[in-house]
Amino acid sequence: MKNTLLILTIFLSTLSFSQVSINEGIYFAREYSKDVSLYRAKSFVMSKIIGTEEKVTKFEIDPLVAAKSGELTTLVYKCEEKKLSGLVLAFYGDRWNESGISYQAYAFKNLPINNALEVLSKLEKIIEDESKFLSQDYDNNNMFFKYDDLTFLIYKIGGGGGSKIRVFWNGFNSDWETTALKRTKRRFEENIK
After folding, report:
1. Which of 10, 60, 70, 135 is deepest in the core (most CB within 10 A)?
2. Is-above-0.90 flag for pTM?
């Protein structure tokens, strides 16, 4: 009994005082990825897209859709004074450090307005045009294409399910449902008007 209590105490104290928390961000990233993405993406848009300077600069950013998987969230941004707008893809995924400790990694991909409209329309059109191919043998028929440094794999699971999209970028492999794609496209177009 004393040995069990001692081992449990050592284990709990190790978790409490470790430098990298094993679960930090994982729950929140999946449950509240729109909120977490909005918080983190503000810094990305401000520093990497718009650029920081001494004068006051105004911009808008709005989370659009979070994939059910929690691995991909889309956000729209606008900075009228710099004439910048576009779509940010927020990627989330598990990573492991040299010690084998798991942590939640995230990164952002900027798609300026024309690129965003192009890739969203292309995805929607391919899925619509190739639905027969995807439905013929849903377990085996797949399609993919590359756009810039993003690769999109399109496939179906099960007989009645809709198409699925996997987005590969910078070491991330994120699931994205077609319903999330359609909502992203619709909300993005509404926001950039």
Report:
1. 70
2. no
